[in-house]
Amino acid sequence: MRVSATARYLRISPTKARRVLRLIVGQPAERALATLEFLPHKAARLAAKVLKSAMANAENNFQIAADELRVVKAVADDGPRLKRWRAGPRGRVKPILKRTSHITVVLESKEE
Asked: What is the rounded CA–CA span in Å between residue 97 and residue 75?
């Protein structure tokens, strides 16, 4: 049984989030959570929140214990970009793109 959770419109670049999510794919859910709690990155805090949500979904909706779950997929997709402008040389304008992410974590029970 696959269970997922998604956090949308997070104010972090998808590239930075993917760097952290790559570490937890394939791990048991509790070990992945422990890994994320000791990482110093902002993306680790956000990913831990999504992972906890997916674990809660599995427990409440499907009665699957947390120790039976493993991370099958963890992705950070592009969200919309906030477009801002900064003054450039000779009266010109330089764009600033503030990127957002959609983080999705998919868990699966170990028996399958």
From this structure: 21
Q: What's the pLDDT tens digit per position in 18-59? A: 999 999 999 999 999 999 999 999 999 999 999 999 999 999
Nearest CA to 55 among 36, 43, 38, 68? 68
Partners of 104 in the beta sheet?
A: 6, 75
State the Cα–Cα distance between residues 71 and 84, nearest whole angstrom: 36
Residues 6+ positions from 31 with CB-CB distance below 8 Å: none
Q: Tell me the whole-structure pTM to 2 decimals.
A: 0.92
Pull the structure tokens for residue 95: 């764009």
Which residues is 28 bridged to in the sheet?
A: 70
Contact between 6 and 102 (Cβ < 8 Å): yes
Superfamily of domain 2-109: Ribosomal protein L22/L17 (3.90.470.10)
Cα–Cα distance measured from residue 60 to residue 86, given in angstroms and rounded to the nearest whole number: 48
Domain spans in the chain, listed from the N-terminal domain onward: 2-109
